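Lab notebook, design round three. We kept the backbone fixed and only want residue identities now. Task for the bench partner: fill in a sequence for the structure below.
Input structure tokens:
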């Protein structure tokens, strides 16, 4: 495994507010991100199949391929949004350590898009966009308060997306898709952890108005997140109602976990109200 050059890892944490101990944890995530960095060329392009191969009739094969293409399209769409978000966070961050960290996150998200683009091409192209993800993107990108952006994107969204990668990886063993999902599980684990660490720093000085705004933002975002997770493109419309109620139960568990994490930040999330579609 390639090791990161020494200078990057030994750079001393400094802080604009004269309290480097407060942002030490964020700096640690910067170092971790540098250590974990990978390249799209590290993947076994051409050696293993991009998506699971199916046997059976031509129609069956085409239908299965359509399902995988829609899975890839949705993740490509999500990571394209993540590139824009990471760039905004890099610009908005108020601490040197956080800016260093976000410079790695912006590279991560761009690399994810690169990998999804190549995978989409190898799997026969992209398909229909998820309209709820576009809605979520609009909402995230329009937020103007740093505390709220970190909260909704890294504390909630990146945490709730991880089980999706595990699910996709489990059903695509031995493929490039599985490999990519495993890499993204690690990366988004770091993104979420770094967001938690930075949110703790930011909340030290946040007033009640900002905290209330964060809670209201979560209330607005959660139902759209659920619609995004439950959305089925036409390739997956045939998936029956039994599966849907299982999916709804899963989304509910994931959201509850997100709410629990938010409360661990000291936010009064008992106030969060949301309804599932
Ligand atoms: Fe990503
Ligand atoms: Fe991410």
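Proposed sequence:
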């Amino acid at each position: 495994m390639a090791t990161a050059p020494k200078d990057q890892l030994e750079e001393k944490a400094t802080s604009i507010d004269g309290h480097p101990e407060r942002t030490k944890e964020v700096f640690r995530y910067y170092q971790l991100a540098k250590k974990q960095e990978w390249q799209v060329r590290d993947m076994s392009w051409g050696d293993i199949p991009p998506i699971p191969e199916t046997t059976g009739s031509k129609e069956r094969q085409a239908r299965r391929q359509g399902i995988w293409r829609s899975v890839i399209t949705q993740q490509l769409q999500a990571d394209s949004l993540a590139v824009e978000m990471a760039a905004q966070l890099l610009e908005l961050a108020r601490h040197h350590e956080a800016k260093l960290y976000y410079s790695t996150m912006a590279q991560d998200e761009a690399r994810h898009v690169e990998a999804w683009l190549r995978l989409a091409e190898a799997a026969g192209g992209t398909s229909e966009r998820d309209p709820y993800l576009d809605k979520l993107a609009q909402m995230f990108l329009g937020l103007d308060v740093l505390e709220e952006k970190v909260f909704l994107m890294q504390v909630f969204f990146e945490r709730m997306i991880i089980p999706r990668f595990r699910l996709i990886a489990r059903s695509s063993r031995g493929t490039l898709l599985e490999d990519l999902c495993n890499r993204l599980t690690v990366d988004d684990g770091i993104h979420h952890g770094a967001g938690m660490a930075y949110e703790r720093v930011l909340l030290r000085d946040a007033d009640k108005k900002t905290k209330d705004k964060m809670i209201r933002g979560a209330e607005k975002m959660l139902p759209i997140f659920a619609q995004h997770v439950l959305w089925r493109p036409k390739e997956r419309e045939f998936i029956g109602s039994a599966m849907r109620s299982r999916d709804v139960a899963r989304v509910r568990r994931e959201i509850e976990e997100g709410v629990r994490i938010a409360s661990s930040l000291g936010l009064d999330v008992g106030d969060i109200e949301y309804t599932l579609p």
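Keep this in mind before ordering anything: The two ends are 45 Å apart (CA to CA).
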